[in-house]
Each structure stands twice: as C-alpha cells, then as structure tokens.
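Issue 218. Parser rejects a valid record. Input:
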Amino acid sequence: MQAMFWITVGAMCLATGFSMAQKPRRCSSPPLYTGGMTVGTQNEQLWAVGRYAYDALNQRVHLGEMGTFNNASFTYNALMLFQEGVLYEIYHHNKTCVKKALQSDFHPMEVPKGAGFVSQVVLGTSSSPGQGLLVNSWWGDMPDKQGNYMVSFTEFGCLPVSALFKSKNMGWVSVSYFDNVLGVGDPDVFIPPPFCMDAKMEANEDGKVTDFFSLFH
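Output the parser choked on:
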C-alpha cells in the first residue's frame, strides 16, 4: 500500500554517467510524513493524483485521490490499517463507509533489500547550491518474479521520488511523489470517521483486498 515528478526508465538511463566517490547505501524513509502522488499505467487504464499520509510506526496509510479508471472519473478516500487488517473506503459526501478485509503485509517506504544500485542523478542542476536534488535509483525483481521495478529516493532524508514497476494487468505502472512534509499535521486522518463505526465487513470476489491496485477494481 505504498506517491510527483515523472521519471521514466529512459530518463534514468541517460543520467547514469553521474558518479560519486562512494556507492550510496540502502535507506528507509522517515516513519511519519505526508505528501502528494500521481499514478499512471502503461495501458492508460488508470491515472490519478492525490494526497497521502504515511505512518510506519503504527502501519497506517491514508489515501485521498481523484482520477480516471477505464475512462470513468472517480474520487477515492481510503484508510488502510495494516495492524488491524482493515481497509475503510470513506465517502464523505453522503457519510457512508465500506469496510473490507486487508490481507497485505505493510511494506515500509524503503529501498528493498534485493535491489541493486543503478545510478545517482541530480534533478535540476548541480551548477549552483540549492538548485538541484540528489536522487538515488535502484532496480530489482518483483517478489513474484513477474517483472522488474525501479525506485528512486533522495540521497538526503531518503524520501520517495518515484517508483516504476510491472503490473500483470496494467503493464508498467509509474508512481511519482511530491511535496513531502515530515510529520503528520492532522493525526485524525488515521481515525475512521464516526459514520464508519457501524460499517459491516464486506468482501470482494475472494473475500479480501490483496494489494493496492485491487482498490480500483
């Protein structure tokens, strides 16, 4: 369940000439922050932009976004509570809530252990101080061996910049992150609103939400 500047494989490959004296090390993002994100797919089935709040300490993610899926517009507000194994789909306009089982391990925002270092690049320019952002990119195989992924994090602070990976149903999926702010200004985003308290557990075809992209089906 885990936002943005678009960074494509081609753009990253063009920048591999940039080198550092010391190879970057894998890192983990701060445990609490908020930010914006965009999501797009190779088959143009999904495009979305929104905001998210991330809490690795309590394994919680709040996502609010709008976009198009299969040429139909949507707005989406979800609260994922991994320790409780519950997903809330929240509809503020009519004060309704759908409660679903969430069977997916919490994956912290970090460079995966099996990832290999690809390159270090500067977004912007390195000609003058403060005019560029130093970013490290990593490449690896998906756990199910059905494709590859590339993730990029800032050198300083280890904040996410982009993710690119292969989806079985959608082709390449590109996620970009922007406007990250450390901390969560409104902790209530991780608390289901009162009208969700009486929501009964519902199920999809297999009875469980298994991953982030199944939220859109």
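Fixed in the parser; the record now loads. The first strand starts at residue 32 and ends at 41.
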